[in-house]
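Quick question: what would this complex look like in 3D?
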Amino acid sequence: MKTDDHIPEQGLPGNEASGSLNGNAVLTLPTWLTSQQQPHHGGYFTVMGASCGHALQILFRRRRLAMAALIAFLPVLIPIAMSYLALGNYSELGDNVFVRLAEDLFINVFTPLLALFFAGMLVAEDIEMRTMIYILVRPTARSAWVFGRFIAFMIVASAILLCACALTFAASTLHANLELTRITDLTLLFHYMGVIVLALLAYGSLSVFLGTFSKRPIVYGVIFFYGWQYAATLIPGLIDFFTVRKYIDALLPIMATQRNVTEIQTALGTFQREVFLVSAGKALLILFIITAIALGSTIIAVQKREYAADRAAGG
Amino acid sequence: MTALIEAHELSKWFGEVVAVNNLNLSIKPGITGLLGPNGAGKSTFIKLALGLYAPSRGSIKLFGEKPRNNIGVMRQVSYCPETDYFFENSTGYEFVFWLNRYWGMNRKKAHEAAYNALEMARMTERMHDAISSYSKGMRQRIKIAQALASAPKLLFLDEPMNGLDPRGREEMVMLIQSLADAGLSVIVSSHILYEIERITDNIVLIYRGNLLAQGQLSEIRRLIDQYPHSIRVTTGNPRGLSEPFTALPEVTGLEFENDAFTIHTRELNSCYELLNQMACEDASRIQGISCSDDNLQSIFDYLTR
């Protein structure tokens, strides 16, 4: 710890001198302070931009981001390795490899994982570290702060996952039946990229919401995103309507959804799922509704809750 | 003069614990000292005034408006919290800059205001260093800089002297007085009477969440002087040394311990004169003298009697 705690005794040069109170010496203050002319307030979008910019700076300084990016790019190696290790007629088709990686890893694992680690923590950390009090005493619309944080998450998470997905697609073209220049194959890539962004919206907004309520958004997020969503697919009935995954699955290309036969499913559960399939349009709408409700609830929570430190009496 | 802060039957409780209880007060422009022992409810009152807490009952207004989620009110106020909270991995400059941006300043203005505020706090030399490398005094100055950068009309300083060395305290007193001279209103909380006494005569006394007194400190002192004072004398021979005090008409009582006695008196000077005489005759007889009336707790003791 440094010991330089002193403000030099002289006032600032070139500024107006003040008088004195109670007979004590008085510092000279700069004119920008004494004129009592406050800076221009840029409005809602200035604050939202500030919240986004600050969150991006925080994220880029995190080792966690490099780690997440590293993990997200690992699937690129899988088609490459499979291509070199494959033996003659036993090689996989390129579209098959890409679709499985896109669904099983990017959409179902990485998307909720990034949402939990970045969207949830961006809000939760300001609350836990109590830096929130500085923000709350500024003339800042709380919704601008929430939206700014969420946009920062979307930028970073989308950039990582979309780049990783595109590279995985490129690597999958080492296999047969998938080409970088074929329009239908590129459409498949863009389809999955779109679903990834929509999944990030839904999972990210839910994670932000968890972050406003809990000090452990990751724990609750893991329980919901991985535990509950998986359990809901095994339980007979319509319980899977209460998952995000059902609506994300409904947006996947038909070819991919029909491939999902490896999970343990009861005959009744499978039958009901076939009967109660959700159309792509409805699924899209529901994902947007989930996002809107989660973000809206987050804003209300930030407005209503008391995030000041030392909540115990007597502070 | 219009009141800056008006609290009407203001109460705040956390579960079963009452932090602020039925507070009715009005604070006018200028410097106001918020005095109370630790745990009195000073910080809770400040957070209620800043809209960080919603009142459990009653109301509080700043500039005639409710402060909670009120952007118009927040433009006019600033806050320097008691505890050190900073953004992770941040430098002093970045901390002030980002808070300026959150205030609503554009990038250029936020840079300019951050530099100006840090220059005023004399932190320009170290402003690009990580806050984690700062001393307590430097952190305090960074917090002051972020509070002043937006040129507020009302500044809340929660225990601003905490952790500062004597010179740092002196500078803080000078800064607060200069701000008041420049027309800013300042609410300073402290649990140390001496600190507040040097800054302002206008005080609000809070004790266990209740408003105990409000007004001029000199008036409160006069009120206190109507009550007996206590002087505690540490000595090896309490009974022998206390004997001359029984002859003084001002002395209302004596209390004895093994190695000390306490004199209760309506007038301090005659007792101090006698103690002075005793010390001149044989200084070894008196090991220590303390008068509890010089501290804030004694004021609370008197006022809660």
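Answer marked as accepted. Chain B is about 35% helix and 30% strand.
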